[in-house]
Structures are given as C-alpha cells and as structure tokens.
Amino acid sequence: MTTETKQDTNYAPEHAPRLQMATLAPEVYKAMVKLDAAARQGVDPTTLELVKIRASQLNHCAFCLDMHTKDALAAGESFERIVQLSGWEESRHFYTEKELAAIALAEAITVITDGFVPDEVYAQAAQHFDETELAHLIAAITVINAWNRFAVSTRMAPGHYTPGAFAHRS
Q: What is the pTM of this model?
C-alpha cells in the first residue's frame, strides 16, 4: 500500500516496527538465514510456500503473509490456491495429496500447544515424503514458525515487500 493510497482513504495508520532484529542481533539473524537455507533443501518450492503461508496465517504474521503470498504469486502459484489455504480442509480439491499432507503437518507443528503432532498427521506425511524430505519439511515448518515469532514480536510492517527480496531467507 503506498503513501498516496493511504492519504486518499480512511485506512488505519501503519504501525512502526519495534526494533530491527537483523541489525540488533546480526549473529542470530545470520544463523536463522543459514538454518532456513539448510531446512529448505529437498523441499518442493511450491509446497514450501504453501506451508509458510499456512503457518503464517495461524501465527497471525502479516509480514510473512505479505512476503510469502507475493513470492508464491511471483513464482506462478494461483491466487485461488493461496486464498483457499485458510480453509484448506474444505478446499482439499485445490491441492495434491502430498501438499495436503504437508499443510496438515504444518498446522499440527504450528499449533503444537494442542499437545503433540497427531500420529495420523505424521503417518500421512510419511506416506508422501521420504525420511530425508520429511526431516527437511519439519525443519522448514519449524523455521517459518521462528521467523513468524520474530516478525510478530517486533511488529514488522507488511505491505512493503518486493517478491524475491529475501530469496535467501524464509
């Protein structure tokens, strides 16, 4: 959203970030970037964006939603599939069985406060991913949850991301 658009409408003001993690904790940020790169190895990029978007929806991370929806659209993902992610259980026909297993796993890992990742969710993912892929998928889901927590707690503002700007990152 541009400044011109905001001035011409009655939108709420944009909040300012609380602090800059990359600047104030550069070693933490660099380690996260390396962990993110390692985690995504061997994970299909489309599946990766779907799980990042779903985890970011669950974590209410507007900055990461902005980033990953823009990156997914720029990579050719359909608007329809992105929009339907919030209701994926009722929109199963938009996704492959493998993507559904990954989305369900992402949701179970993200909402771990429910107790644990259910055996049936893990078993479904294990049917579609070999052990190495599954290990990387679990790592990638864990990493996006960490990025979400950094962005939400520091109040990173959505709306300014350019697709591919953080290609090295989550």
A: 0.88
Going 67 to 68 to 72 to 73, the CA torsion angle's sign is: negative
Contact criterion met (CB below 8 Å) for 48 and 75: no
HEC profile of the chain: CCHHHHHCCCCCCCCCCCCCHHHHCHHHHHHHHHHHHHHHCCCCHHHHHHHHHHHHHHCCCHHHHHHHHHHHHHCCCCHHHHHHHHHCCCCHHHCCHHHHHHHHHHHHHHCHHHCCCCHHHHHHHHHHCCHHHHHHHHHHHHHHHHHHHHHHHHCCCCCCCCCCCCCCCC
C-alpha to C-alpha distance for 141 and 105, rounded to whole angstroms: 8
The per-residue pLDDT for range 56-87, each reduced to its tens digit, is 999 999 999 999 999 999 999 999 999 999 99
